[in-house]
Design brief:
CATH class: Alpha Beta
Radius of gyration: 15 Å
Distance between the termini: 29 Å
InterPro entries: MTH1187/YkoF-like (IPR029756), Thiamine_BP (IPR002767), UPF0045_domain (IPR051614)
Protein name: Thiamine-binding protein domain-containing protein
Largest sheet: 4 strands, antiparallel
Shape: globular
Number of helices: 3
CATH architecture: 2-Layer Sandwich
Strand content: 15-25%
Structural class: alpha+beta
Family: Belongs to the UPF0045 family.
Number of strands: 4
Organism: Nesterenkonia cremea
CATH topology: Alpha-Beta Plaits
Strand order of the largest sheet: 2-3-1-4
Domain Thiamine-binding protein: 3-95
Number of domains: 1
């Protein structure tokens, strides 16, 4: 399964409105999980089994909650049993199609 999620404080205590520190702690948890992942400016996508993926999301959310009394969490999942390595293969299929057409 692939799960894209975004977790951040609902309000920043930083003068410039940045939530980078809290988000960095969440990303550190994802990295330390050992699961395949990609992070971009809006979401982090991780790949794994249901329980392991959602355990990481929970831990990342807890890390942000530790620095903010209100947290925003957005989750989108692609549940496709029996398919691994979709983090890269889904993108490659699109790239292959674009090159052929």
């Amino acid at each position: 399964m692939l799960v894209a999620f975004s977790v951040a404080p609902a309000a920043s205590s930083s003068e410039d409105g940045s939530v980078s520190r809290a988000v960095a702690e969440a990303v550190r948890i994802v990295r330390d999980s050992g699961l395949p992942y990609e992070t971009n400016s809006m979401f982090t996508t991780i790949e794994g089994e249901w329980d392991e993926v959602f355990a990481v999301i929970r831990e990342a959310t807890d890390a942000v909650t530790a620095v903010s009394s209100r947290v925003s969490l957005v989750v989108k999942a692609d549940i496709r049993p029996g398919h691994d390595n979709q983090l890269t293969e889904k993108v490659q299929r699109v790239e292959d199609y674009l090159q052929e057409h």
